[in-house]
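Data card: per-record layout.
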Amino acid sequence: MRKLNFFLAAAVLAACAAFGSGRMEASAQSAQYYLGGMTAGFSLSANGVEIVAFKEVAGETGSGCPAAQAGMKTGDLIVAVDGIHTRTIEELGAALERSEGQQTQFLVRRNGEELPMSLLPIKDKKDGKYKIGILIRDTLSGIGTVTYIEKDSGRFGSLGHAVCDGGHTSLALADTAVYRCSIVGVARGERGKAGELKGLMLSDAQLADADKVCETGLYGTFTDGYDFSEAATVEAAPISQATIGKAIIYSTVDGVTPRAYDIAIAKVDAGNKHNKNFVIKVTDEALLRETGGIVQGMSGSPIVQNGKLIGAVTHVFLNDPTRGYGIGIEKMLGN
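The structure for this 335-residue chain is written out next.
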């Protein structure tokens, strides 16, 4: 299964929810949250069939690649065939068989624009199936970090940013199950290249069920019976209470257990509308040795200052992996 790290390197994103400081002040006094920091695996649907590569089709009367000849490109999303919405590989295969090699109308989404294309499928002489010469996928799987779990409801928030891959800015849940991940390796971050956590999804260790994905992350509810006995409990605080100076992030960069790491908050920008409310710098020597700083897969790592949850890690600076952005926690709460 292809792994996709749910992390964006200095992308510009819009918040999907914002809450006034007054509401945040009130809720912070009453609600209690378990700190996250554990990595988790998700499965998302692209709401179409994505082209990842092209391949010649050997037909009975010759070879060709109808998709490429029609103008399709890698990263394109096939969303309809002959006017019928196509969401999965199976649905695309069925549509091609219905074509019987006749002129077929495709609707392709590219960079938010829908493009109509017409082509002739080729009957593969090896298996007798109609094909257009593409390698495809319809789901994306990957890892991210859980930020918080509300103590009373079990409601969780993670990632802190939109899920984005291959130019797609909007994905849907393909499998509502969220699984624990074990981190088995790290590709260190370097100047000009983001590092990444390498994780294995533990399919026998379900953490939660997801029900929402939006511009500030992925949300759902933890399963009954999850053991929170080792989890720290905190209150949330609005951006107005954050200050420049020392703070802590909780992340998992080896195995399944989160650890606390020292950071410094270099900038607080309460009015930023692009999920970039904090500029942070990793100062923890152990984390710098292990990862080089912030790496893909750490998005969602909770940021704690003065004993309160104030936000989550979201982005890394590509020109300096020790630095990155964070989102204010009030933009995630309530989803």
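Known properties of this structure: Residues 1-29, 165-169 have pLDDT under 50 and may be disordered. The chain has two domains: 3-45+141-331, 56-132.

See the next section for split statistics.
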